[in-house]
């Protein structure tokens, strides 16, 4: 039997973060993961993270994964891959299967960070090839660089469904529609908006009835549901698709904790262990962090892992209580900030009608994925002024503030409350650098100059599709709903390492389209 100070099960964001903190304190730490590569879900996540600068906001998930692995190696964390933990026992012992051989390990502390698994959705034809989970689609695209399909129907409009839909389009797939049995879009509005302006429609209060096809998916039938979740007769709609992607939630993979005898509780978010503020379960020395203890974002999982790692180091005598409390106070504050806003735990499932600033929330955004023209000017980030200036179509209280730090001239203000809506300071002079546009994880910031020419305005938009349009090229400008509204000419294309693959495309449009043109469609055949 081999012995370690800390054994971590799961090499994702929570597990690696805990292992790093423990090893920094001088502990011998080993991490087991059943996969061939470490990093968990991070290496699928090519989008930029929300949150604060301190918690890696505006950094893409796979880069955060690379940073964690580098730190783990630097601090001497031992990582075992293709290692399936098949047993966890109250004496803080585990059994691990590697290469068809079972090994026995004992730790002074054990952290379970096994994450979550995708929920399946049962409907007619759900076992046909071409029906896949959103996480599987992400794996196929972003790890193996293979298109999951050509024409895709997405089932589910939470953040996973929205993010993966956008990434499917980036991979060259056509997303025909997004549907959700709920009466409104359940993920971040900024995620929905960047899909809607590409011309993709949302169907809330709809569910999938059938996947068509004999040997593989050749089509899909959806229908509208009533208040009792029953299909309304005559509302069926058909889509010609070859792929049906389901994003209908996650379930914590908490089986090991149950096996060990930890106290468990059943919640709407799954079967999870009862933990204290440091992630310790009812069995002393056994901890849980990340999605296995509650389904949240990767940013929260990393903080939870760090909190557990620091407490384990204290418990085993590697860290003083003074240092533990200092670190914990800061990390707890960061975690609470990430859990604020209209998508925080206390607001899940609620239909909020006002922002924290007492501004009416866009109902059009919740139902169709975009803010209507008659709603847009109620938000503090939407201004009209002489010369170039930022227009921030961020209209929900989301924990995110990189735009405030990105602006070198202080044109953008969010304040101490990370979920406050961004405000344009009209007294500050925008220099048109585009740093705010590139930094926004939701791609919700645009630079507008209505005085660009006598009859024309310029609009700088974030652009993350290939091939990049070329300067001088002419095409179409699309509004927030994805409707073509006018001719557009590309007058600038900016790329830089500092932008981290968010290209800045500047288009020239008629002056009266300055506050409507939000996407560019190439005119090339």
Automatic annotation (TrEMBL):
Protein keywords: Iron, Iron-sulfur, Metal-binding, Oxidoreductase
Q: What is its EC number?
A: 1.5.3.1
Q: Does the keyword DNA damage apply?
A: no
| Family annotation (Gene3D superfamilies) | 3.30.70.20, FAD/NAD(P)-binding domain
Q: Write the protein's name.
A: Sarcosine oxidase alpha subunit
KW Disulfide bond (keyword) present: no
Which residue windows are coiled coil? none
Q: Where is the 4Fe-4S ferredoxin-type domain?
A: 384-417, 420-450
Which top-level group of life is the source organism from? Bacteria
The protein's GO terms of the molecular function aspect are: iron-sulfur cluster binding; metal ion binding; sarcosine oxidase activity
InterPro entries with a match to the protein in the record: 4Fe4S_Fe-S-bd, 4Fe4S_Fe_S_CS, FAD/NAD-bd_sf, FAD/NAD-binding_dom, Metab_Enz_Cyan_OpOx_G3PDH
């Amino acid at each position: 039997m081999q012995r370690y100070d800390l054994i971590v099960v799961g090499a994702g964001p929570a597990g690696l973060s805990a292992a790093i903190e423990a090893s920094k304190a001088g502990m011998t730490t080993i991490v087991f993961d059943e996969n061939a590569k470490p990093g968990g879900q991070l290496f699928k996540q090519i989008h930029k993270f929300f949150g604060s600068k301190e918690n890696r906001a505006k950094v893409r998930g796979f880069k955060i994964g690379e940073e964690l692995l580098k730190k783990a190696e630097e601090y001497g964390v031992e990582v075992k891959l293709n290692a399936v933990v098949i047993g966890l026992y109250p004496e803080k012992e585990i059994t691990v299967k590697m290469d068809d051989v079972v090994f026995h390990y004992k730790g002074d502390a054990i952290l379970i960070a096994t994450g979550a698994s995708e929920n399946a959705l049962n409907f007619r034809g759900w076992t046909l090839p071409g029906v896949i989970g959103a996480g599987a689609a992400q794996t196929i695209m972003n790890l193996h660089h293979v298109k999951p399909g050509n024409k895709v129907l997405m089932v589910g409009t939470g953040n996973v469904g929205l993010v993966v839909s956008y990434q499917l389009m980036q991979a060259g797939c056509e997303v025909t529609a997004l549907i959700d049995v709920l009466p409104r879009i359940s993920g971040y509005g900024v995620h929905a908006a960047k899909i809607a302006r590409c011309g993709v429609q949302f169907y809330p209060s709809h569910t999938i009835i059938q996947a068509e096809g004999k040997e593989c998916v050749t089509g899909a039938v959806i229908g509208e549901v009533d208040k009792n979740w029953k299909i309304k007769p005559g509302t069926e709609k058909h889509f010609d698709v070859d792929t049906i992607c389901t994003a209908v939630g996650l379930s914590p993979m908490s089986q090991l904790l149950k096996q060990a005898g930890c106290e468990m509780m059943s919640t709407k978010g799954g079967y999870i262990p009862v933990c204290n503020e440091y992630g310790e379960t009812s069995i002393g020395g056994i901890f849980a962090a990340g999605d296995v203890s509650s389904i949240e974002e990767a940013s929260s999982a990393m903080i939870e892992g760090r909190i557990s790692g620091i407490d384990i180091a204290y418990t085993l005598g590697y860290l003083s209580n003074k240092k533990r409390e200092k670190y914990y106070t800061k990390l707890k504050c960061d975690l609470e900030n990430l859990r604020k806003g209209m998508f925080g735990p206390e607001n899940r499932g609620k239909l909020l009608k006002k922002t924290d600033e007492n501004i009416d929330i866009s109902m059009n955004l919740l139902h169709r994925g975009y803010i209507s023209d008659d709603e847009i000017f109620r938000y503090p980030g939407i201004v009209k002024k002489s010369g170039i200036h930022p227009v921030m179509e961020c209209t929900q209280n989301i924990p995110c503030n990189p735009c405030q730090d990105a602006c070198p001239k202080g044109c953008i203000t969010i304040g101490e409350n990370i979920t406050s809506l961004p405000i344009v300071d009209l007294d500050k002079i925008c220099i048109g650098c585009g740093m705010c546009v590139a930094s926004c994880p939701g791609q919700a910031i645009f630079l507008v100059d209505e005085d660009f020419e006598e009859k024309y305005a310029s609009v700088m938009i974030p652009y993350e599709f290939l091939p990049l349009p070329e300067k001088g090229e002419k095409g179409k400008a699309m509004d927030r709903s994805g409707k073509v509204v006018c001719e557009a000419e590309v007058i600038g294309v900016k790329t830089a390492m500092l932008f981290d693959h968010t290209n800045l495309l500047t288009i020239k449009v008629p002056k009266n389209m300055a506050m409507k043109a939000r996407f560019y469609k190439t005119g090339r055949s």
